[in-house]
Amino acid sequence: MTEPGDPSAHPPLAGRVPELGAMELLLAVGRLGSLGRAARELGISQPAASGRLRALERQLGVALVRRSPGGSRLTDEGALVSEWARKVLEAAEAFDAGARALRGRRDSRLRVAASMTVAEYLLPGWLIALHHRHPGTAVSLAAGNTVAVAQQVVAGEADLGFVEGVDVPAGLDAVVIGHDRLLVVAAPAHPWARRRTPVTAAELAATPLVLRETGSGTRQVLDAGLAAYGGAAVPVLELASTTAVKAATVSGAGPAVLSELAVVEELAAHRLVAVPVTGLELRRALRAVWASGHRPAGPARDLLALTVRAEG
């Protein structure tokens, strides 16, 4: 004896309700008057259709179709079952339409997280190209340092991320979509801007700089490059945005290390001067990242294709 609410009192529907394909076949036989024509309409062989129909009759325990040399006709029980089946199939079509609408809303939305350099200097052009290709796509952008971007992508808060660090963060798959070079820059009045010989890597490591915060891709590359010289000195200022670092450097707070992409205008206007450095390679890869095992789809896939094509 079963108690109210006991799951055994109501076996799963999957074992009791016929498959949708069998119900579609029954309706087709009733409409076309022929098992062969019904099979062709559904794209299955006649033997397969016969087997599907026999299985349906065994499952329900009643004869549904009366076969004759002139064709196939539904029995009275078959006509009744076909009416029930029609309602089930209509509900299934409504379910499918709703699911497709949900996919459509998902596919029309793109969440992007990008490190500061990519967000400020590369992503706008890519998003304009994406808009021309898919004008209905709504894009949200979260800008932060490389560590923050990786955390958002791993947590499923962003569909696609762009980072600038030394390595691929844990939990992510990646592809290189570009390269960038870091420059040492100083205000024109700074002694380094007027010296005739390059600054050595050891000098750079010993000098307090205006730097991006720990966790940024720029800081990761610099720290890795200066590791052989004891690491970077304690910074004179540590700031959370490229714009703030540039402003502080222009005002004379001290030299800085910034992306070449970020200082094009300042170098052209002579507000900053590029300082040659010897013994140090500050080139880095720019990467698109996504959660491991979940290849980008929809607008994220299209944006990724645009960035890879731009690099090629």
How would you portray this structure in words?
- The chain has 312 residues and is α/β, with parallel strands linked by helices.
- It folds into three domains: 7-105, Winged helix-like DNA-binding domain superfamily/Winged helix DNA-binding domain (Arc Repressor Mutant, subunit A); 108-174 and 285-311, Periplasmic binding protein-like II (D-Maltodextrin-Binding Protein, domain 2), CATH 3.40.190; 179-284, D-Maltodextrin-Binding Protein, domain 2, CATH 3.40.190.
- Helices cover 45% and strands 21% of the residues.
- The chain contains 13 helices and 13 strands.
- Strands 3, 4, 5, 6, 10, 11 and 13 form a seven-stranded mixed beta sheet that branches. Strands 1-2 form a two-stranded antiparallel ribbon.
- Helix 1 crosses helix 3 and helix 1 crosses helix 4 (76-107).
- 32% of the residues are buried.
- The model has no long low-confidence stretch (mean pLDDT 88).
